[in-house]
UniProtKB/TrEMBL annotation:
HAMAP family: IspD. Belongs to the IspD/TarI cytidylyltransferase family. IspD subfamily. This is 2-C-methyl-D-erythritol 4-phosphate cytidylyltransferase. Catalyzes the formation of 4-diphosphocytidyl-2-C-methyl-D-erythritol from CTP and 2-C-methyl-D-erythritol 4-phosphate (MEP). The lineage of its organism: Bacteria, Pseudomonadati, Candidatus Hydrogenedentota, Candidatus Abyssobacteria.
Length: 230
């Protein structure tokens, strides 16, 4: 299995309300991005790891990697795009044609474990497309602009989708190309694969595998990492 990882990390982190990029937020004395990279770089099957960086931050992202992973030779820094989808596409353009599998994981999800990543990767190796997701705990309702409920969705069928999302290289490349041709902008990568008519398999994710979005999420990360004794 010849695999690479792609880490979209080029967001501005507006909901964090910080003037620095979200992936540089310190957690237990290390930048958020270093925690995200730890389980990914722990997998030898990844021949290269592409990180989309926020415009203007290439130098500081390079410093983080040099400091936390000084012997690491597989990291490639790629200019981020206007949207997450564009950031992933910029990285995909750099993936060599002899690669079989591509793993995509949000830079903003620092509580990923190596085991979860391996589970999703293995499922994609067998099936072509796999994503991590967890059952929805709350009820989800569709509401209108007046703030009243118009429908309640069947919770049994609802999943909260996370990353990692792993795909055969040819499938995810074709899916991104089609999305660009159609002018379609999705909120994750698997929806682009669904639009190709391909089947996406769901692997049990983890409720701890949160996407750091608002300042309170940092406190949660600190506590989970403390419990993991990291
Ligand atoms: N991302 C990216 N390129 C963009 C926008 C987002 O690579 N143009 C990445 C983020 O860095 C993050 C992931 O996509 O790792 C998920 O995005 P999100 O959580 O929305 O992060 P931000 O866009 O940075 O946050 P916000 O929406 O609050 O500005
Ligand atoms: Mg965003």
């Amino acid at each position: 299995m010849r695999a690479v990882a792609i880490i979209p990390a080029a967001g501005r982190g507006e909901r964090m309300r910080s003037d620095r990029p979200k992936v540089l937020t310190p957690i237990r004395g290390r930048p958020l991005l270093a925690w995200t990279l730890e389980p990914i770089l722990g997998i030898d099957a990844f021949l290269e790891v592409f990180i989309a960086y926020p415009p203007g931050e290439e130098h500081v992202i390079g410093q983080v990697i040099g400091q936390d992973f000084p012997d690491e030779l597989r990291v490639r820094l790629v200019h981020g795009g206007q949207t997450r989808q564009e950031s992933v596409a910029n990285c995909l353009a750099r993936v060599p044609a002899d690669i079989d599998l591509v793993a995509i994981h949000d830079g903003a999800r620092p509580l990923l474990t190596k085991q979860l990543l391996l589970n999703v990767l293995e499922c994609a190796n067998e099936t072509g497309a796999a994503i991590a997701a967890v059952p929805c705990k709350d009820s989800i309702k569709i509401c209108n602009e007046e703030g009243t409920v118009t429908a309640t969705l069947d919770r049994e069928k609802l999943k909260l989708v996370q990353t990692p999302q792993c795909f055969r290289r040819e499938l995810i490349v074709a899916a991104h190309e089609k999305a660009e041709r159609d002018g379609y902008l999705g909120t994750d990568d698997s929806v682009l694969v669904e639009r190709m008519g391909a089947t996406v398999h769901v692997v049990m994710g983890s409720y701890e595998n949160i996407k750091v979005t608002t300042p309170g999420d940092i406190i949660l990360c600190e506590e989970v990492l403390r419990r993991r004794r990291l």
